[in-house]
Fold these 4 entries.
Entry 1:
Amino acid sequence: AEYMGELIEHSRDLMQHPAVTGELKVISGSSNRSLVTKICTRLGIKLCECTIKTFSDGEVFVQVQDNIRGADVYIVQSTSSPVNDHLMEVLLLIDACKRASARQITVVMPYYGYSRVDKRSKDARQPISARLIADLLTTTGAQRMLTLELRTGQIQGFFDIPLDHLQFNDVLATYISENIQKLLLPTDKLTIVAAGKRATMRAKYLAEKLQISWVVVDGRKGINEDDERRVGVVDETDLSMLYLLGDVRDTNCILVDDIIDNPTLLSQCTRLLLQHAAKKVWIAGVHGVFSTEGTIESLFQTGVESLIVSDSIDCSSYVKTFGDRLVVIDSSELLSGAIRRIHYEEKLEEYM
């Protein structure tokens, strides 16, 4: 009777997850091991043992220690700084898994580097870097991709393999609702601000989710220098001046963008909002690249209350320096949930 009970229970599992034939294995690159550890904890599995080292001449060596023959392997690696080393790691890990007879290889890339160049510019003598990286991953042996907030949606079309593009907006909206919106007085207003045209869709979505208003900080060349909304020249973003589309007087503002890297544009946007009588300004992004030295300090010096990013890139060293003013939101629940659903071939709509 006990054996029959176990057999019935096993049959139910097969009916619920009929397509699963490989064991779920997760391998971590060196870019963000803390995130991968949290993902494995949520999945209830042990992280695969893997050796990654760099020889004195700069060559990268990887070796997977666990048996992955016939397994469904998920390689988690963000191509953050040092970008080329981390990219080489993931390519070598893909090849190692392929040669170790893994059943399926999925690359989980929370931050997809080289995404800034995704089309040809007026000067045609340059690469389309985002497409090249897609080709490298696919040719090496990746059979599926899982990413978090690509810089542009069109990058999905660069892949000839299935790609699942996760959105961070719902997680960000939950944080804003529970940690900023609830703490404001009933008379206080909260406004989402898009840091340029690229961020308008994110700002609109967050505003609708939180049922608040949203405005845009935009930039154009040739605006009259006497325009009272003028802030100054932003050379790094090729904008001659910025101006505000909307009203932020006596409101608390959350300035949103996807990548937090060079501080110039966000600093100028913050100054513009404060000049227009905004009470407080928070900055919220997805990927905390912070490649420019002094980025966080510069943003705080302009009057930003706090900086909010995901842990798609390891920011632990910055948290030690800036404490509670740098808020890092855990993305492991989102990523582990997506990995579980992909493994059991379930729907992913609520994550995308």
Entry 2:
Amino acid sequence: MTAVTAREQDWYPAFAGQTAAAIENNERKGCTNTTILGIQADTGKNPATRGEWVALQEDIQEGIAAGNVKATWSNLEFRLVSVTKAELIIKESSRESRVVIASCPSQHFNTVMQLAQGKEYVDATFGREDDLAGKVMKGSGHAPQPVVSLEKSVSQMSMNPATEGKSVSYDDHDGDNVSYTVENGQLIQRVNGQKRLGNDSTTGIVTQLHFKPPRCIRDQFFGGGHAPKRLLKDIAKLADSVNVPHNIVYDGCTIKFDDGDGDHIKFSLEGGELIQYVNGKRMLGNGSTTGKISHLQFYPPRTIRDQYGGGGLVPARLLDDIKIMAETAGVQHNIP
């Protein structure tokens, strides 16, 4: 199968759209090195895989040049490699160096899926006929449909109809009017009606939001200011809808984990207060059932206790989130 005939297949637009959406998502997260992997087929096998790989590279490059794929060509690296080399590349994936496995012959499907399983910075956009993604991409199995443009495929994959066009607007502490709007699957920031970021970029495309309690929100270039507390949840939901990473907390946010004793712990922001639950009930170290925390004491490497000494081990990955919750509620702490 050639690149031309690959594009004529009814599954190709969805396949290309899924891959382009994954690339765009990495770009929005600030990734400057995305490796798009194709897995080599055994000699003489899977001509479709070879054809789709060539077509995909051409269409992604043309899509970026036309502005239909929101990514930077120089940030991408296409590599057609063996399963052995793919394993090494997947192991080295990181926040700054992400991987999209776009093409894989059926004889290597299970092996590659196992390699990618549980890897936070790896996406797989390929599918085979007998898995769910493959069935969706193959369609009904009738004659090939007319080829859909990559522009249409990308917009269908990356836009969230539920939030597209929605906006949050307010006046910050400097008197500037700030707004966040979901446009074409991206979060756009405007200051006094003009697209603008902290580095004076006029694209307005937000790829990350930084929250500093009690209510300061800044973009990836640290432009921003104080937002009304009542709007923190709305801003967070807009960011979530287009996969923009953030650390915004607001009334109703919770953190759940099991401590070293096997108890189920939950920290919850309720009415501006930090409430602790133990096994589903409000509880503090002295047996108080108010659950209201006024102080958190941190003991390295990862123990946290309330003002009465109740507490235990906390997953290290949650320490920053608990710290932000405490500061939002005005709770004293010594969490680093």
Entry 3:
Amino acid sequence: STWGSSLSLVCCRSPMHEAPLHPLGPDEVWHKECLGVAFVFALSATVLATRLAWRHWVSFVNPTQQIQIVRIVMMVPVYAVASFLSLAFVEHAPVIDLCRDVYEGFVIYSFIKLLVDLAGGEESLAKLLARSHAQQHSVPLNYVLPPYRLGGVFLFRVKQVVLQYVFVKPAMAVVALVCEHLEVYGEGKWSLTGGYAYVTIVNNVSVTLALYGLLYLYMATHDELHQFEITPKLLCIKGVLFLSFWQGIVIALLASVHIVHATARYTVADVSIGLQDMLVCIEMFYAAMFIERAYSFESYRATAKASKAKPLPLLERLQTLLSFRDVYAETRECLLGSAPSWTQFNGPATLAPAGKADKLKSH
């Protein structure tokens, strides 16, 4: 179909044959046009997000919170630039996509850290959660899983499911690279003999667990932390991850039924990846506008002016931003070590009595 052919001309990947085509052939024309569109959106998104990160950087009065905010905001330029470069520099696309995948899990971790910091730390948040009764899982899991207690153990489990994604996502990206090198990956093909199906399933399970834990922590804290406007903050992250992951699945399904297909020059895998990269560039522009409102720097600038406190020295701010010691410490504590002391603070194991107001009942 004409529409299917148009979709298939989105990107420029590996040639299917060595014979050169006419420089103004349809594949090259579409590739240049789509690169132009992707460049405009990616550049605009990068400028907006970098400007917001810089404003937080200048008003760096609360390092424990703003370091996480800057990391989350930088998701936009990382995604936008990586997706554009993946379109423009085909030979380096697998490595570029790997960098983007590594950052994806890191963003979810940063949001969890931000929630904990807003609540005053792990022990304060554990005590806050322990005030509530046990909660039912969402439908249909509530029919097969018992109610879960809120408190320190709950927070510890949430951290664990989020941190596993920080490592599973890049690990699966490396597996995909190896399979592609061995020519057994089969991009977009749901075959038992190819690596694509297995990598996709593992990624799907991993991200579902991470987002499930993230959502439940949000539901348990949004009333107490409503003054920090955590709902739009969560929607920014969930929206970006949801679109980037599931649109890849949809594109693969379209390829499997030959709506997205190969052209005279490019394979169906090339076209699928290119279409995904271009969509991400466009989406990051709108994500940047949303993030600018959700992670505003105004409150921190007002605090800096009111307190007249001097921000950290430039070098120290840079070291704080680039240091990943917190990730290392969290990993050792949650995945390799024993449960911390704040896991002793837990709420009752029973549900709220019938007729008593339950803040999470509507969820």
Entry 4:
Amino acid sequence: GGSCCFVYLTTTALAAQWGAPTTTTTTTTATTTTTATATATATTTTATARASASAAGCHHPPQLRLPFSPYSPYSLSSTSPPRSRAALFSQRPATRGCLAYSSTRLVGTETAAAAAMATGGGGTGMCSSGGQKQKPLWREELERSIEKEKGKPASRFMTLATVKAGEPRARTVVFRGFMDDDDGGDVKLDGVLKIITDVRSEKMQEIKDNPKAEIMWYFLDTREQYRIRGTLDVITDKDSSEARQKWRSQQWEEISPGMKQSYEWPSPGQARTEENDDDKKDYLDPKPSVDVSPNFALIMMVPERVDVLKLRESPQKRHVHSKNGDGWTVQRINA
């Protein structure tokens, strides 16, 4: 449906493309034979890949895709790898077995992938390795961005935008993790981001009036931007679900004593007057609540569309990931 179809080439093709250097003269004959064999293997593999793509209705030529950067195309005509061979084959071993990439995600081995694409399968936007369902591509990319800037507090800060009476409202919030990490990998919670807030804050009414929101998350070092659009789901002390209250309690236990203390402060956003302008009494004296504060709320951002922009790529790459049932589809667009 307008999305590009890609095919991951096998390790054989990689070895054929970037085999051992041929710089010695004493092994010229052997090297020439090996190179010819490797070239033939690469050509055969490429032809197979093109045939698989054609059977799936793909109109873009298959390109070499590496697990550590699914967006960066390196064609078989390249004369040198983008990085060392050791680095190529050591990157993300958990996903190395995903050898095919359709418009919607990686699936199984090359043969299984061709069959899946030809029959319309593999459209869940998930990577299947040994029958195990994996994370959406955008989340793998996001987790790599987080890992690259690990140790820098600013990398956990996101801008959350909501709407109030038709006007935008934005504020900085802290990423608290993914919901399915705390709930045994429940597919219904896959990719759901966690944020916390005070139930007395203005954003609570904004979310009640219109739960649609967008997160903008930029990573300075990697120059990557993620715009995550979706629906906000809030869990307060009034929620009757035992499971949801468990999630809220778990998040409360994970925050620092200083953060817990902030939920005993005066209502955010209210004006300070001479009569109530006692910072020590209001901000320093209150003790953190042992139990979950009634002012504490867990916000879940349920993503529906993720726009990923990679400014460091040349040319810049931009892909839009869209929720489709239990899976995701991805489409490259102009940056």
